């Protein structure tokens, strides 16, 4: 696999269709980059895919749902790969509203998105989507403070945004196809990249956070991840595109990389570090003890 690619939509749980794609990560493995359609009386789209795959993404989406029926677009967080086809979808889905929280709205505005069709939601509030509720929560692992996962009360599917992710040896349909040692190593690498702050947590405190997720009693866990754009030849064009995009928006993106005082003292240019979201995956059905 030499380039990112879309695959055929597939059902992953009751009322839940995955719009799967994957991208190769040279020297590391493969990242899944998925969005999801929840079919019901008020259909929901979860995230909107990679910008580079917008055309095949829209084809897969329109194979899965009539956009005139789409009512909600749940944005887990506002990184680029979760927003790839948002503008196109809003133009073609006249009844759809974007679901995010207060900080998500602010970041959408900073990126130049129209927020007139946003339904603002905060943890503790539920989105009533016709025949089901989507109950938001903050996942135990995340890379953006506005991140919202949710549990679908009708199917018990849990969407965990960027949590519980792994860099995989190759693209797979389910996590059961990944050897346990490869999954363990992939999760460790991903956690070090996506949430290095985990190393500062006490295991008991983090265990309590995971226990709260377990009490939600999910049947399926769905996740997403990202990659660093290394300062190497294969990422030259991607880094240039990222730098140009950041220059067109608020300068706080640059100041967040280093302390402001150091920025002002620096006489020469900095070499920026860029990341992009490039993966989401379904972990598989949750095991339960025999009755």
Integer-rounded radius of gyration = 19 Å
Q: Count structural domains.
A: 1
Distance between the termini: 43 Å
Order of adjacent strands in the largest pleated sheet: 2-3-6-7-8-9-10
Average pLDDT across residues?
81
Helix content class: 25-40%
Any overview of this molecule?
The chain is built from eight helices and 16 strands. With 291 residues, it is of the alpha+beta class. The protein has one domain: 4-Layer Sandwich (Metallo-beta-lactamase, Chain A). The strands form three sheets. It has a seven-stranded mixed beta sheet. Helix 1 links the parallel strand 7 (44-46) and strand 8 (72-74). Residues 251-260 have low confidence and may be disordered.
Summarize this structure briefly.
The protein is an alpha+beta fold and 291 residues long. The chain is built from 8 helices and 16 strands.
SSE arrangement:
Elements: E1 5-6, E2 10-13, E3 16-19, E4 21-25, E5 29-32, E6 35-38, E7 44-46, H1 54-64, E8 72-74, H2 86-92, E9 97-100, H3 102-110, E10 118-120, E11 127-128, E12 133-137, E13 149-152, E14 157-159, H4 180-194, H5 203-215, E15 220-229, H6 236-247, H7 252-255, H8 260-265, E16 274-285
Parallel strand pairs: 7-8, 8-9, 9-10, 14-15
Antiparallel strand pairs: 1-4, 2-3, 3-6, 4-5, 6-7, 11-12, 12-13, 13-14, 15-16
């Amino acid at each position: 696999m030499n380039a990112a690619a879309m695959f055929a939509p597939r059902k992953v749980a009751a009322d839940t269709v995955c719009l799967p794609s994957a991208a190769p990560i040279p020297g590391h493995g493969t990242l899944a980059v998925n969005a999801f359609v929840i079919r019901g009386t008020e259909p929901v789209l979860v995230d909107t895919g990679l910008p580079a795959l917008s055309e095949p993404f829209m084809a897969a989406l329109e194979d899965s749902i009539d956009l005139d029926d789409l009512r909600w677009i749940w944005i887990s967080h506002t990184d680029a790969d979760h927003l790839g086809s948002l503008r196109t979808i809003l133009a073609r889905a006249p009844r759809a509203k974007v679901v995010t929280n207060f900080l998500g709205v602010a970041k959408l505005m900073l990126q130049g998105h129209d927020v007139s069709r946003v339904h603002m939601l905060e943890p503790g509030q539920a989105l009533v989507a016709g025949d089901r509720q989507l109950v938001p929560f903050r996942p135990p692992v995340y890379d953006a403070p506005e991140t919202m996962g949710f549990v679908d009360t009708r199917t018990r599917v849990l969407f965990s945004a960027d949590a519980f992710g792994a860099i995989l040896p190759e693209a797979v349909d389910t996590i059961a196809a990944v050897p346990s040692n490869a999954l363990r190593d992939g999760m460790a690498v991903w956690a070090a990249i996506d949430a290095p702050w985990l190393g500062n947590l006490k295991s008991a405190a983090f265990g309590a956070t995971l226990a709260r997720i377990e009490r939600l009693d999910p049947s399926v866990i769905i996740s997403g991840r990202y990659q660093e754009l290394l300062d190497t030849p294969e990422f030259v064009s991607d880094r240039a595109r990222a730098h140009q995009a950041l220059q067109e928006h608020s300068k706080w993106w640059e100041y967040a990389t280093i302390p402001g005082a150091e920025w002002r003292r620096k006489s020469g240019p900095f070499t920026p570090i860029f990341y992009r979201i490039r993966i989401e995956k379904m972990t598989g059905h949750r095991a339960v003890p025999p009755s």
